Fold Dihydroorotase.
Amino acid sequence: MQKITITKPDDWHVHLRDDFILEGVVKDSLKNFSRILVMPNLVNPIKNTQDAINYKTRIINAIKKLKIHNYFEPLMSIYLTDNTSEKDIELAFRSGVIFGVKLYPFRSTTNSFDGVTDLFGKCSLVLYKMEELGIPLLIHGEVFNKTVDIFDRELIFIENIAIPLKEKFPKLKIVLEHISTKDAVEYVKSAKDPIAATITPQHLFYNRNIIFNHGLNPHFYCLPILKREKHRLALIEAATINNTKFFIGTDSAPHSKENKENESGCAGCYSACYAVEMYATIFDRVGCIDKLEQFISFNGPNFYGLPYNSTKINLIKQSHIIPKKLNRNIEIVPLGAGELLDWKLVE
Ligand code: NCD
Ligand code: ZN
């Protein structure tokens, strides 16, 4: 039987939500990952350091209830708004608990109604401060505009926002999150450091056909929306070429089955529980299992200036099926429900 032992990975982009689902969701993440960078888009967003400290305490309490020992404290982020101040950024920097500031363009995705309406007009001073202090800007890189086709939102964001942002703030650390297009891959490759991009399992596994396969499949609806096959292939290439600018970020985003299978279904795929097995499966299917560790365990810490994890995980090549449903105090249909995975995490 084929077995690999690699450095325990981290998840550089995860949604844990709050309240009664927190415990189950955190458990899934900690089974797979050492450090997790927690997104701030709660219904009441995490807008400042105090919000983040309170949320972190709730997460740690959930971890304690699970009786998990030797865990890493979650890495927190705050939500950029039109009203974020330079002082907010300084406090975030000094706190030592904030690892990024998240840019959601207004209305771009789940809980983004507090998002930024005019980045260069309203946030310039804050961006200068972040550049000075070295705090990463974590970007949901899509424009939301009724005249822009949903499949072009990322490309237009790169042209209209990312390129000028990089010109105006060349030293600002940028992570283009959950990239979904060949255009984003090419942009990140060509842009000068410091810039990186995260890639999700869904964007490596699927193209947009899956959303419309034998009927409408809401469980594959996420933002950025899945794209054409040529984009998926470009993302696989980016993830598997040992280019340190690309690393893991699951964007695992739980929504209840009911809220997904709804006349206005929510965007987001839940992958925390099988994420590492999904990445291993796709890397192996393209003949690159030897590149997995670089992508899931080394490139992220390199970008964030953190040490590699000292613990290891074991994976064996063994088929198993992703369950059709999970119970995390709400019913959740996981990403790839019913599909075969080729690799399995073992003790
Ligand atoms: C995320 C969520 O549900 O919070 N949804 C998604 O489709 N990815 C938000 C996000 O990262 O865009
Ligand atoms: Zn996300």
Remarks:
- The chain is about 35% helix and 15% strand.
- The chain has a mean pLDDT of 98.
- Residues 164 and 323 are 44 Å apart (CA to CA).
